[in-house]
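Minutes, project check-in

Agenda point 3 was the complex the collaborators sent over. CS summarized: two entities, 225 residues total, and the question is how they sit relative to each other. Sequences were read into the notes so everyone works from the same version.
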Amino acid sequence: EADIYQTPRYLVIGTGKKITLECSQTMGHDKMYWYQQDPGMELHLIHYSYGVNSTEKGDLSSESTVSRIRTEHFPLTLESARPSHTSQYLCASSEGWEQPQHFGDGTRLSIL
Amino acid sequence: ILNVEQSPQSLHVQEGDSTNFTCSFPSSNFYALHWYRWETAKSPEALFVMTLNGDEKKKGRISATLNTKEGYSYLYIKGSQPEDSATYLCASYSGGGADGLTFGKGTHLIIQP
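CS then shared the predicted structure for the full assembly.
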């Protein structure tokens, strides 16, 4: 039973469109993360949040932005999608580094 | 080692056989080592979080060991079953970044009946 939800699961869209990937969790975790995975590559941290009104960029540079207005919600936005943004995006949350991260099912994004 | 490295990249194992694979990680500034199982079309599922040198953890037929001084962890699967087929990811946490993890590319395990 999933406690962290991502929508959409799949998205195929044209270049130049604004996209928002949704992520919500019901566990009350303060810490949330966005990871990006290109085919055959590792998951890379692109954004993280310590809690409400806290957002930071991760290790991998990304043109996306995130917001954290509510504890349970951590959406990721691409203002103008490009083919280079084609990838899989996974959202996760946790209580801290000694605890496992809980992942959503991911969004497979394809920009034409 | 600057990155997390996993080997082998893929592995075919006969049902009933036991197997193991390796995760190497930076031993400096080590806080924790995570193992996840990722089945196709599902979300990564946590297996273990290990923090202490010499740690051994077990969950059913799956176990893991940790050596923080030399920077490696082994994952063992005893008596492999078809449902063990998945990609096994390890990830290290070395401080900072709200506990964001550095992942390896994973070991893709296929159990052949």
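Noted in discussion: Chain A touches chain B through 31 residues (CB under 8 Å).
Follow-up: revisit at the next meeting once the mutant set is ready.
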